[in-house]
Amino acid sequence: MSARSIYESPWPTATTIQHGIFTVCVASISIITLYILxxxxxxxxxxxxxxxxxxxLWAFSNFPNSIGRIQGLMWIRLKDxxxxxxxxxxxxxxxxxxxxxxxxxxxxxxxxxRPEMPKGYYVPPPGRESLFDHPVHExxxxxxxxxxxxFTERA
Length: 155
Description:
Helix content: 40-55%
Largest sheet: 2 strands, antiparallel
Radius of gyration: 27 Å
Structural class: mainly alpha
Mean pLDDT: 83
Shape: elongated
């Protein structure tokens, strides 16, 4: 038995624990950063919407879009982007923004054989009903009929 083994503890020391925690943190941050970079590069160059014009940062991540919506300035930024890039702008990795009225019927009109657009997930406060996201299909249809004349070509 050597003299050194008598003084060694079988338990990890504070230094080895700190080193392990540091290693796990660095590995986690590296993996998250790598994921963000790989998904951003995919969104920029290989995504099905990659050919549409728009700011590269908007195509890279949802972060600029989210910040713009939180600040309430996204409509101004979209207008500026449409002035710069044209009638179709990629506003987020999975979103396009259109400003031509012809697109309204292509995107929002009911077409036979095309599935219905999903309803929103907004849940109004108790005692109030949402005008556009009504969960009852018949009530939604009634509200839609009363509003549809405002969205015609003549309007």
